[in-house]
Amino acid sequence: MPFSQQHADAACNFFELILKHTVDEWYGKPFILAPWEEEATSQIFGQLTESGSRLIETVYEEVPKKSGKTEWAAGLALLVLMFAKDRGCQVYGAAAATRQAMNVYRAACAMVSQSKILSKRLKIMRGTNRIAKRGDPDSFYAAIAADGDMGDGVNPACVIADEVHRWKTRKQLENWDVLTNGGITRRQTLTIAITTAGVQNESPIAWRLHEKTRKIQEGIISDPKFYGRIYGAAVEDDPHDEKTWIKANPSLKENGGFLDIEKIREKYTSLSAEGDLTSFKRYFLNMWDQKEGRSIDMAKWDACRSEWSAAGLLPKPPEDAVRPLPHDVIAHFIERQCWVGVDLSMSTDLSAISFVFPRDDGFDVLPFFWTPAAGLRARELKDGMPYRQWAEQGFLELCEGDVIDYRDMRARLEWGARLFDLEEICFDPWNSREMSVSMVEDGYRCVEIRQGFATLSEPSKKILSLVASGQLGHGGHPVLRWNASCLTAKEANDNLMFVKPERARNSSRIDGISATTNALARALIAESNTVSYSGLRSVG
């Protein structure tokens, strides 16, 4: 896509030649962008489509406190309003509550008041928390709260969502959908989410955008219309080391910004004296506060060696009801001893089975995935995953209609039983009784794997160990890789198990890993030549 330096410079010049700061010792001084602000402003407004329209539609900026988020957000609102060519440009500055939204609004008002150019073209309307264009009152910037009631007239050209880690309630989540989807009839829209780190399980919007940004940076997914940056310390960084502070805070003078490191030093001294650095790490190192951490180092996952490749796993067109595997893949697995795990999940989402094959130095995994064909594009947009591309490449099977046809999954299990030395079919009990009972009646050995620490701790730890030591052969399957990148775990009394994401609030999926864990639970028992019935029950 073309990049227009002219458009990028125009946006940056608006800040530095038109706007002035509104707080503390910087009041009245020109708004000189910090390097991270200049990069973001240039990328948002400089990337164009072939037709010359702005390419970027969604922005996610995650930075620590004191980075200048409020003033930058105010400037962005005025920039979009002033540059809008179409009449009726609605710009909304939204925050979780009115107080936060008013912080940005007051900064924008102060910027207008300090500029003769802006004062001639914009009118401050404090009674309605708006700044309107003179001569075009339907073009305005309005401060709104995400926990309030939004009228039917909301038709955003631009939404600037501040501190989205605080958008947690059902009302706030509903209004996020209203704001981000309300301008669907417009020629182009822009959503800019700005936040500090939050709590993973309490900040669904911010965490979803955080994960999408991370996955794009790691090359797991791509979205040319999305621009995201995360500034913060890594888990392995020393929070006591000032080098970590410099790394995490892009607005520090050491990074070309405006913030004196003494400000961070004061916060560190104050909070460390209280004996708890949790707040310091979250607010000033931008580290997410979470009890559940990401479980797998994806560099180690990618480094796992296997003798087979998942490329072209399910070639088209299918020759029968069950798509055949390429000859070289079959040759690697045929007649080998294996266990297969089943994770049916929701019939409207993603389901998986995973054949697990022991080998002398570890295990090989052969996964299969299903999802409904209906509504596929909507799920691609929501989850940020290339489902249709995966289906075309043979890594994902589409079921006609809007639910997963479990008969297709059963056909794959029967196919595996014919080709491999299949010991047991290992089911998550949830929603699986109909399939498992019918397969027992047809002579297959089926076992229910209860979902709890007693059953899943050992295989969960084993998966982490296999990945760390490069002993889990997965063939580079992209859907399984995505599942691995989403993996988090919880611990209790030296036990560990993987956590399934809340599907209604989280676009992460671990179905393939869950199916693998179920199969590995039984494979490990056979490997140790011991019998344990804790959490395990034969079906039938």
Please supply descriptive tags for the structure shown above.
540 residues, 8-stranded mixed beta sheet, Nucleotidyltransferase, domain 5, alpha/beta, Rossmann fold, 3 domains
Structure description:
With 540 residues, this protein is of the alpha/beta class. It has 19 helices and 19 strands. The chain has an eight-stranded mixed sheet with strand order 3-4-5-2-6-7-1-8, with helices on both faces. Helix 16 links the parallel strand 14 and strand 15. The protein is elongated.
Q: List the uncertain runs.
A: 315-319, 530-537
- Write down the CATH class of the largest domain: Alpha Beta
Q: How many DSSP H or I helices?
A: 19
- Per CATH, which architecture of the largest domain? 2-Layer Sandwich
Please report the total strand number as a whole number: 19
| Mean residue pLDDT | 88
Strand order of the largest sheet: 3-4-5-2-6-7-1-8
Tell the overall outline.
elongated
Class based on secondary structure composition and strand pairing = alpha/beta
Distance between the termini: 58 Å
Q: How helical, in percent, are the residues?
A: 25-40%
Number of domains: 3
From the alpha carbons, calculate the radius of gyration and give it in angstroms. Answer: 27 Å
Topology:
Elements: H1 5-18, H2 35-46, E1 58-62, H3 69-83, E2 90-95, H4 98-113, H5 116-121, E3 122-125, E4 130-133, E5 136-145, E6 158-162, H6 170-181, E7 190-195, H7 204-217, E8 226-230, H8 242-248, H9 261-273, H10 278-284, E9 293-294, H11 298-303, H12 327-333, E10 337-343, E11 351-359, E12 362-372, H13 376-383, H14 387-393, E13 397-399, H15 406-419, E14 421-427, H16 433-441, E15 446-449, H17 453-468, E16 472-473, H18 478-485, E17 488-492, E18 495-498, H19 511-528, E19 536-538
